[in-house]
Specification:
Layout lengths: L5 E6 L3 H10 L5 E7 L3 H11 L3 E3 L13 E4 L6 H10 L3 E4 L7 H13 L4 E3 L7 H11 L6 E11 L7 H10 L2 H4 L1 H12 L3 E9 L10 E8 L4 E9 L5 E8 L2 E6 L12 E7 L7 E5 L6 H14 L7 H20 L3 E2 L6
Parallel strand pairs: 1-2, 1-4, 2-3, 4-5, 5-6, 7-10
Antiparallel strand pairs: 7-11, 8-9, 8-15, 9-10, 11-12, 12-13, 13-14
Helix pairs in contact: 3-4, 4-10, 5-8, 8-10
């Protein structure tokens, strides 16, 4: 059966917009209708490269175009809510980058719009679609390392490297700190892997660069209802090394994940999942797992399934909100020098 073709409007032709459209370009069920950016030259360049029939600096006229089925919101965080509001008012389906808003009030409004609209909305909690994270979730659920007890997660970027320009981080921090921007992924991973809600958060932070507007190095600690604990460490700075370390520790062993881009053995076509067992007589297990770090096409296919068959998709909007609320309260806990019990904290 011939797949339906979906017309795409891309809003935001920057770093993350490129990742979205490159993963979709050339797929038989995708037609790029238009590319939009505040920089007309960049919008034009994207239109030429990805075969869009039009480009512009204002997305709003395109929302009246019946050939646009899905809007990709790949802009800065402070624009996500107003653009979503316009999209659902015109009956468009949406893929929206995270975080959904800059504060809890905005996030609640985002969720209200999603739930009250006939439009289908997928928020880019992209690790839910990553094959290696899905494999680790499967291993944990199968009891491969016993009961999950601890997670150690680090993702820091050394600013100034070609793929991580400092100016981009400075603009991102105008909207929210690194712990909110990236931490929503890992609060979500904790809840997803443990199958339990996060009940309290704390942490520490530091300002590592004199021209950073806020603390740009943060550690969030999390305690879950089932007793599992974890931490997430993030830094955007000229003064840290780039790291992407993940360890999930259970009562019978632990699982480590090394992404293909971070491997030191020369292998670049698969992630490395290594299982270490507490039983000394049981040999370690290695899984070579081909994966795409940010699988935008898998997210697109999930949204299409939501459109065609209904349902909430792989990342329910309530899970999106809980991850966002967790990191916002973690930032509050760090600022106030205390541990916050989520159930006791008014928004």
């Amino acid at each position: 059966m011939m797949k339906k073709t979906y017309g795409i409007l891309l809003i935001g032709c920057g770093h993350i917009g490129r990742q979205h459209i490159e993963d979709l370009y050339g797929k038989e069920e995708v037609r790029v209708v238009a590319t939009v950016d505040s920089d007309a030259d960049r919008a034009s360049a994207f239109a030429r490269r990805y075969g869009a029939s039009s480009f512009g600096t204002d997305y709003r006229p395109y929302l009246a175009d019946p050939s646009v089925d899905i809007v990709i919101i790949a802009t800065y965080t402070d624009t996500h809510l107003p653009i979503l509001r316009d999209c659902v008012a015109h009956g468009k389906h949406v893929i929206c980058e995270k975080p959904v808003a800059t504060d809890l009030a905005g996030a609640r409004e985002f969720v209200r719009l999603v739930k009250s609209s006939d439009s289908k909305v997928a928020v880019s909690h992209i690790l839910r679609y990553n094959r290696s994270y899905r494999k680790i979730k499967e291993l944990i659920d199968d009891g491969e390392i016993g009961e999950l007890r601890m997670a150690r997660m680090n993702q820091s970027h050394r600013a100034g490297e070609p793929e991580h320009p400092w100016d981009r981080f400075l603009r991102l921090m105008q909207d929210c700190p690194p712990l909110v921007d990236c931490g929503v992924h890992y609060a979500d991973v904790m809840r997803w892997f443990a199958g339990s809600p996060i009940v309290s958060v704390g942490g520490v932070s530091a300002k590592l660069d004199a021209d950073s507007p806020i603390d740009n190095y943060q550690i969030m600690t999390m305690e879950l209802a089932n007793g599992c604990r974890g931490y997430y460490e993030v830094g955007w700075s000229r003064n840290v090394s780039s790291n992407n370390d993940k360890d999930f520790i259970g009562t019978k062993g632990h699982i480590s994940l090394t992404m293909a881009a971070n491997r030191t053995d020369g292998v670049r076509d698969s992630d490395l999942i290594r299982i270490y067992y507490g039983d000394a007589e049981k040999p370690d297990r290695i899984i070579e797992n081909p994966s795409i770090y940010k699988d935008m096409y898998a997210q697109f296919r999930d949204l299409v399934d939501m459109i065609e068959n209904g349902g909430e998709g792989m990342v329910p909007i309530d899970d999106v909100f809980e991850a966002f609320r967790t990191v916002v309260l973690a930032v509050r806990a760090i600022r106030e020098g205390r541990r916050i019990v989520l159930a006791e904290e008014p928004d």
